[in-house]
């Protein structure tokens, strides 16, 4: 049975962490493990996470960052640690469990069934028979942004910003996380832009063949989200930055030039 580590970025999540749900899932899914990244929280988040690890150290681990660095960097550091463990898949999930933990098995099953896939990303598509509950304003703003991201990436993606994603552990996917992200609000789009660069410079398989959007059966907005409507304006500025730094035709070198790591060299040798 395939194994996975799920990274949970946490910043001042004391009041939103569903500890009992994590405990229950950890007991019933011993091949799935959680790495909580405490992103310099100033409340009791760190204490709660340490208690969870003490409760079941085989299922839960904690990475404490000394200061708040933002979700993008918390996810990046967590994924890098997860990918150096002996597991098949590594992913990240929002701490508020807007996407239920039970969906993890569907993500791993999709990767199990389709070996050519490198990543599976959750997609909040409101269809009959599915329970997708989003605030109306955020939904429409999200649709506008998703369309813009799709145009910039030249990828027919429906939902780039869902906080549930899983990756097959390979040299290519490790490379996506070797350097700090330029963006914070839309680092999910930046991940796909980096994958586009790998495709361009190292002849990796195309995203259309290796990325799968998995329609979620359940997702709901959870009170206390740190994303506000005006942050969508920041997201469009960050989207411009992604285009300029990764996707404009005149770029001559890939983002991996920023950090010559053993993983990067392994990609080059494979190419």
UniProtKB/TrEMBL annotation:
The keyword Transmembrane helix applies. Pathway: Protein modification; protein glycosylation. Residues 6-169 form the Glycosyltransferase 2-like domain. Keywords: Endoplasmic reticulum, Glycosyltransferase, Membrane, Signal-anchor, Transferase, Transmembrane, Transmembrane helix. It catalyses: a di-trans,poly-cis-dolichyl phosphate + UDP-alpha-D-glucose = a di-trans,poly-cis-dolichyl beta-D-glucosyl phosphate + UDP. It is found in: Endoplasmic reticulum membrane. It is a single-pass membrane protein. The keyword Transmembrane helix applies. GO terms for molecular function: dolichyl-phosphate beta-glucosyltransferase activity. One of its GO terms (biological process) is protein N-linked glycosylation. Pfam families: Glycos_transf_2 (PF00535). Its main location: endoplasmic reticulum. Gene3D superfamilies: Spore Coat Polysaccharide Biosynthesis Protein SpsA, Chain A. Its EC number is 2.4.1.117. Belongs to the glycosyltransferase 2 family. This is dolichyl-phosphate beta-glucosyltransferase. It comes from Gimesia aquarii.
